[in-house]
Amino acid sequence: MRTMRWVPFAGLLLASAAAVSAQAGQGFFDGMKINGDIRAYDFTRHYSGPVAGQSAFSLGGGLNVLSGAVDGFSAGASFYTAHSLGLNHSNPALVDGTLAGYDGINTFGQAFLQYQNRRVLVRAGDQLLSTPWINASDSRLIPATYQGLFAAIKPVTGLTISALRLTRFKSRTSDNFSRTDLYNSTGTFNIGGTPTPGMAGRTEPGAAALGLAYHTGGLKVAGWGYEFYDLAKMADAQGAYTFPSRGALRPFVGAQLVRETGSGAQYLGPVNATVYGAVVGVKHRSDELSLGYNDLPAHPGAFGNGDVVSPYTTGYATDPLYTTSMIQGMVDRKTSGHAVKLAATGFFLQHQLRVIASYADYFNTLTPSYSSATTSEVDLDLTYFLKGALKGLSVRDRVGIARNIPVVNRFVYNRLMVEYDF
């Protein structure tokens, strides 16, 4: 299996760590940190349309190793695995492949070297990334990871300037890194993306991004510029302000703006997308109630009638728009329109029970590829966190019901997870 090519590389990281540690007399092994998770996941999706429902079970997790630092240098690696244990249906058409693919997964998703001090971080290799439009999308067994270079500096308190260049991508269902994205999705590759004509088998040079984030008091602002090579250029700006407490309540407001045009060869065709967003809400300790809105104007002749090109979140519903839900978001539909979403998060039983609930309406521009003028979704997410001797163990159930989805009509998701974090 090509995945195992990273075993020698991970060994080299540890050997290098040992050599430097021996010279320094301390550091790499003395300060080593090991953590991870074990996750059992039962997954079902049912449709009221002509498409057969699917289900899947998988057991897996991740093991993360980060060495201690010597003169600011350290090394890290993460091994991920996911397997059905032979418990899924023998007919692949009735199996949801987004948990562990169709054959199981064993992969080193992270293997990196880094330098870090109080103000600077530079990391090279296979790694997790956490930016608005390039992120881990960790809602299955294995997160998406990226191969490349990431750097961040904090010149003054509250300000972070980040830059990245990624050359390869490993989706949640892939064993290996490749020069692809989620528009290259096929029946058994990058499962869960959005297959796009002409993209299967095509490779791209990856992406680059530059970001700035500032936080002071109740104000948070961030701006990112992305280059998805040969696909699109994106500018993303978001900001939020939480007002001083009024009694036990803390009102907040936020806004977001996305502007995108084509890049290079424009393999997806002309790109012309603009997204406006606003959110208002109130916080009470850890509880929160919010109302979000997004508008994505139509641009006939452009990709998706003016839709956003998002190579590393499309089909995953993990983009940063205020109205993205568990099953669907505006980006994943390849059409324009607007949406509104009401969401609430509450903690009960001395924070052992977390409840997340939301309702969203999507108003869509009809196109030859999208045939539903309105869709909706209601989601309920319950997590129970155990304490005492079982601290680290949680049970989570996520239920989503989407209506008027093209072809499948009513779409019911249920995701049951038992997880132990260590």
Would you mind describing this structure in some detail?
The protein is mostly beta strands. The protein has a single domain, classed as Beta Barrel (Porin). The chain is about 5% helix and about 50% strand. It is built from 1 helix and 18 strands. The protein has an 18-stranded antiparallel beta barrel. Strand 17 and strand 18 (about 410-420) form a beta hairpin.
Please write the string of helix (H) and strand (E) elements. Answer: HEEEEEEEEEEEEEEEEEE
Please report the number of helical segments: 1
Looking at the structure, the CATH topology is: Porin
User: Mind describing the biggest β-sheet?
Assistant: 18 strands, antiparallel, barrel
Strand percentage: over 45%
CATH class: Mainly Beta
Q: Give the name of the CATH architecture.
A: Beta Barrel
How far apart lie the N and C ends? 28 Å
Quaternary assembly: single chain
CATH H-tier superfamily: Porin
* Mean pLDDT level: 93
Assign a percent range to the helix content: under 10%
Q: Give the overall silhouette.
A: globular
Count the E strands: 18
Radius of gyration, whole Å: 22 Å
Poorly predicted spans: 1-25
Structural class: mainly beta
Tally of distinct domains: 1
